[in-house]
Amino acid sequence: MLSRVVLSAAATAASSLKNAAFIGPGVIQATRIFHTGQPSLAPVPPLPEYGGKVRFGLIPEEFFQLLYPKTGVTGPYVLGTGLILYFLSKEIYVITSETVSGAALAVLVIYAVKKYGAFIGQFADKLSEEKIARLEEFKQSCIKYAEDGIDFEKEKQAVVQKRHYLFDVQRNNIAMAFEVAYRERLHTVYREVKNRLDYHISVQNMMRRKEQEHMINWLEKKVVQSISAQQEKETIAKCIEDLKLLAKKAQAQPVM
Amino acid sequence: VNEELSTFFYVPVGTMMLAIAFPAILLPTPNRLITNRWITIQQWLIQLIMKQLLSIHNTKGLSWSLMLITLTLFIGLTNLLGLLPYSFAPTTQLTVNLSMAIPLWTGTVVPGFRYKTKISLAHLLPQGTPMFLIPMIIIIETISLLIRPVTLAVRLTANITAGHSLIHLTGTATLTLSSIHSMTITVTFVTVILLTILELAVALIQAYVFALLISLYLHENA
């Protein structure tokens, strides 16, 4: 509010200037101070582990410490007893039905606290611990998920580093395939050429054979033609005489 | 006892405001996730009760959940605090209970009649009634419907007031007997203890019943 007064005073002062722009409510809004400090409540201060110490469940220990220098250990007890007796005897505190109901309630409450107090405290602690465990488990699972992702990524990066092996193998395979195709084609060419050459050779051989046979047949025919009849008779007579001589030799020999 | 009976008709505004506002101190709002034992137990209790109370509602009905939680907590706490000696329970006043019951009941019935008139009217007649009974049944059901806020308020008032009265009467009996025949006070004292236990239970149960009935009326009328 004071800032608004200051700003309106500044506005009236500034409006007297020559080049003063109209200072409207927008300026006041813009210069109002909002949220300048750190708005975060975290981290909250930790809770104390144990509550304040009390005697009789009602009166804090500090009261006894307060009275100790003056009245010693029994001081507060004497004070309490005296006060109670004073109130009762002077009927400042009147015993009515409320007293009885208060006494009954006190009996019940003290019994319940003594018997079940620790149990309820442990139960509450267990609830808190379960909550913390759930949150912790979630946090751990998130961390684990992130770490697994990191490991997976690293693994993949390592694999990528080794990609060149795969490329080399593929390159080798392709080179071998090329080589095989080249040799196959070479072999085909060789075979075809050999085929053609064999054909020519066989043709030559056949021609020579044919010429030889033809020549032999011609020679034989001519020789047979050249043998006249007389020569034939003389040749046969000679053969008969040779045979007779051989027969005589043959007769003579088996006797031996 | 005189105090209690006369306060049925006379409204002590100052102490009533204090008594109505005080339970809020006992229900702190946590500013951290893992709280102290008091708040942890409260959260656990509220979860336990509300699961029962809100399980029958659909999404639209769950917009009433804050109202029902507040109702249960208020009635329960004020009843319990009223059991302390020299304290005041606002739920013993019919005005308080009526002012809770009538708006809540109206809020469950009137939207039902407005948006789903046929279904709301159909609730007035149970299935399978013989023809000649129908007019009677409709009149009776209408009366029972209109009397619900009154029953809610009067039930709560009567239970709590009766419990308080019993405890105070038995207490007075104990005091009177202590001067006549001291030994019987053990019997009456035990009676007072038992009645207090009953009252504790009744206090909590009444709160629950109130909220439960309202949630049922809500569910009936969608």
TrEMBL record, chain A:
An example molecular function term from Gene Ontology annotations: proton-transporting ATP synthase activity, rotational mechanism
Statement: the UniProt record of this protein carries the keyword Mitochondrion: yes
Keywords noted in UniProt: Acetylation, CF(0), Hydrogen ion transport, Ion transport, Membrane, Mitochondrion, Mitochondrion inner membrane, Transit peptide, Transport
Cross-referenced InterPro entries: ATP_synth_Bsub_B/MI25 (IPR008688), ATP_synth_F0_suB (IPR013837)
GO CC, one annotated term: proton-transporting ATP synthase complex
Entry's localization field: Mitochondrion; Mitochondrion inner membrane
Main location class: mitochondrion
Highest taxon above the source species: Eukaryota
GO aspect biological process, one term: proton motive force-driven mitochondrial ATP synthesis
Record text on subunit structure and interactions: Component of the ATP synthase complex composed at least of ATP5F1A/subunit alpha, ATP5F1B/subunit beta, ATP5MC1/subunit c (homooctomer), MT-ATP6/subunit a, MT-ATP8/subunit 8, ATP5ME/subunit e, ATP5MF/subunit f, ATP5MG/subunit g, ATP5MK/subunit k, ATP5MJ/subunit j, ATP5F1C/subunit gamma, ATP5F1D/subunit delta, ATP5F1E/subunit epsilon, ATP5PF/subunit F6, ATP5PB/subunit b, ATP5PD/subunit d, ATP5PO/subunit OSCP.
PANTHER family: ATP SYNTHASE F(0) COMPLEX SUBUNIT B1, MITOCHONDRIAL, MITOCHONDRIAL ATP SYNTHASE B CHAIN
Role, per record: Subunit b, of the mitochondrial membrane ATP synthase complex (F(1)F(0) ATP synthase or Complex V) that produces ATP from ADP in the presence of a proton gradient across the membrane which is generated by electron transport complexes of the respiratory chain. ATP synthase complex consist of a soluble F(1) head domain - the catalytic core - and a membrane F(1) domain - the membrane proton channel. These two domains are linked by a central stalk rotating inside the F(1) region and a stationary peripheral stalk.
Family: Belongs to the eukaryotic ATPase B chain family.
Protein name (database record): ATP synthase subunit b
Organism the protein comes from: Loxodonta africana
Gene: ATP5PB
From TrEMBL, chain B:
Record SUPFAM superfamilies: F1F0 ATP synthase subunit A
InterPro entries: ATP_synth_F0_asu, ATP_synth_F0_asu_AS, ATP_synth_F0_asu_bact/mt, F0_ATP_A_sf
Membrane topology reported for the UniProt record: Multi-pass membrane protein
Reactions mediated catalytically: H(+)(in) = H(+)(out)
Subcellular location: Mitochondrion inner membrane
Superkingdom of this protein's organism: Eukaryota
Residue stretches spanning the membrane: 7-27, 62-82, 94-113, 133-154, 166-194, 200-218
Record key words, sorted: ATP synthesis, CF(0), Hydrogen ion transport, Ion transport, Membrane, Mitochondrion, Mitochondrion inner membrane, Transmembrane, Transmembrane helix, Transport
One annotated GO biological process: proton motive force-driven mitochondrial ATP synthesis
Gene Ontology CC annotations of this record: mitochondrial inner membrane; proton-transporting ATP synthase complex
One protein family per Pfam: ATP-synt_A
GO molecular function annotation: proton-transporting ATP synthase activity, rotational mechanism
PROSITE patterns, sorted: ATPASE_A
Family to which the UniProt record says this protein belongs: Belongs to the ATPase A chain family.
Quaternary context: Component of the ATP synthase complex composed at least of ATP5F1A/subunit alpha, ATP5F1B/subunit beta, ATP5MC1/subunit c (homooctomer), MT-ATP6/subunit a, MT-ATP8/subunit 8, ATP5ME/subunit e, ATP5MF/subunit f, ATP5MG/subunit g, ATP5MK/subunit k, ATP5MJ/subunit j, ATP5F1C/subunit gamma, ATP5F1D/subunit delta, ATP5F1E/subunit epsilon, ATP5PF/subunit F6, ATP5PB/subunit b, ATP5PD/subunit d, ATP5PO/subunit OSCP.
Name of the protein in its database record: ATP synthase subunit a
